[in-house]
Amino acid sequence: MLNIILTGLWIGLVFNVAPGPVFTESLRRGVRGGFRPALAVQIGSLVGDTFWAVLGLAGAAALLTQPQLHIPITLAGCLVLLFLGGQGVYAALKPPVADDAAQTVSATSTAAGGPLVAGALMSLASVWNVVYWGGAGGAVGGALGENAALGSLLIFFAAFMVTSLAWCFICAGFIAGLRRAMSQRWTRLVEGGAGAALIVMAVLLVIPVFEA
Length: 212
What we know:
Oligomer: single chain
Number of helices: 11
Helix content: over 70%
Number of domains: 1
Strand content: under 5%
Shape: flat
Largest sheet: none
Radius of gyration: 18 Å
Structural class: mainly alpha
């Protein structure tokens, strides 16, 4: 059992620490709004992570590995990244106004398409999550075996989620600390750069769809 717990903790750490769209969006929101928006993006992303993980660990790996499923999810993910990336670039280029920081934090925290929803949409529409939890890389199957018992899968999943939740707070705390050390100019540069990075990720993600 200890081996299963350690495996879940380690795979959860590797899965979450790897830089990607969710971290980029957390950075974009966090340098402008601080700890809470960054944390909300991270917590929201757990919704999609949990959804795909439950499907994969429940034996739906055959479904998740179907190319017919990957294409619409990829396109949906691209649209989400383009929208959020465009928001970041626009916010960075928009001329500052009086009380801009307070207004931005308020809008970021209360908007219908706020950080929590953004994180959930990004993870739900992430084809990388589908491939991972479908067992394409063999990460979970290789660690627990092809015919792992339900109890072992539940323990693995719980350990994975513990690491994921801990990383949400670590990541948000890091971004909040970075924000306090940045000037307004650097805040705008990082926000715009993160938005541009999301757009580039969307383009790189969609290219293989049209090449297939």
